[in-house]
Amino acid sequence: VGDEAFQQKCSQKIDQIRSSGKTILLVSHDLEMVENLCERCILMNGGKIVFLGDTKSALDEYKRMRGR
């Protein structure tokens, strides 16, 4: 969300937090953002965890579930 400059600023701040060794909890349906920012993912459906693991596998499972 936001213009390109704001998105860049947020991305830099997230990178700064990650490099300090802290954990970030990101909730998003933006697959590109998830792919760029996340190392591990939890995929939920109907309020239940259906996948926990690496980002690529989570995105593949999400696309499979959505019929893409």
Explain how this protein is built:
The protein is an alpha+beta fold and 68 residues long. The chain has a domain at 23-68. The protein has three helices and two strands, in the order H-H-E-E-H. It has helices at residues 4-19, 31-37, 55-65; strands spanning 40-45, 48-54. The chain has a two-stranded antiparallel sheet with strand order 1-2. Strand 1 and strand 2 form a beta hairpin. The radius of gyration is 13 Å and the shape is globular.
Provide the low-confidence segments as ranges.
Answer: none
Helix percentage range: 40-55%
Sheet-strand content, in percent, reads 15-25%
Q: How large, in whole angstroms, is the Cα Rg? A: 13 Å
Calculate the mean pLDDT score and round it: 91
Question: How far apart are the termini?
Answer: 24 Å
Question: Which descriptor suits the 3D outline?
Answer: globular
Give the neighbour order of strands across the main sheet: 1-2
Largest sheet: 2 strands, antiparallel
Q: What would you call the structural class? A: alpha+beta
Specify the number of helices: 3
Number of strands: 2
Topology order in helix (H) and strand (E) letters: HHEEH
Topology of helices and strands:
Blueprint: H1 4-19, H2 31-37, E1 40-45, E2 48-54, H3 55-65
Antiparallel strand pairs: 1-2
